[in-house]
Protein: DUF2848 domain-containing protein
Amino acid sequence: MKTILFEVDDRHGSFERTISIDALVIAGWTGRDTVAMEKHIRELEELGVKRPTYTPVFYRVAVERLEPTPKIQVTGSQSSGEVEFVLLKDDGETFIGIASDHTDREVETYGITVSKQMCGKPCSRKLWRLSEVAAHWDELVLRSYATIDGERVLYQEGKVTAMRAPQDLLDEFARRDGQLVDGTAMLCGTLAALGGIRPAERFEIELEDPVLRRSLTHSYAVETLPVVG
Structure:
């Protein structure tokens, strides 16, 4: 079990809430738009990642990987981030956050589950109540920026409509014998990278709510550790 002190931002203000997490799920291949999902599948196939046998897929990762940290350490130079919205259940209520499914792309070519476990999953400390955004869910926008060779570039951008809506995704999870019970966090899929998947020394993620005029944001530096054997 992992305990994180979050900040819940709702219509009445913000307050701190300590949430215990004992299960971390990474949902993959969650595209609502089959054309966009196929683009991402081909993107990964170019890196040697095998096509999934069914979609979506729900990978299990150690809860220690989820952390609102400003820096992660990775082995070698073949990893990269992905902005994703997060579903988090606590005391019967579902919250929304954001995280980066930072993944080792070299390991991903021979073991997707292992590649997910290899890297930290930096997340925002701030959360929203799902109930406050459910009515205008399709208006939310995900984006990320990557700093590559010292240049900050737009890396991903698009509406959450690219992925399955929360309840649809949870229904699929239930069909695979999963439940979003208290203490479960789920990363819910990502967008295709603009210009292709590539490593960066810094990664910034954002979930924008243009209706309520607010955003969830987080950024982190990537320290590359040498491979010596």
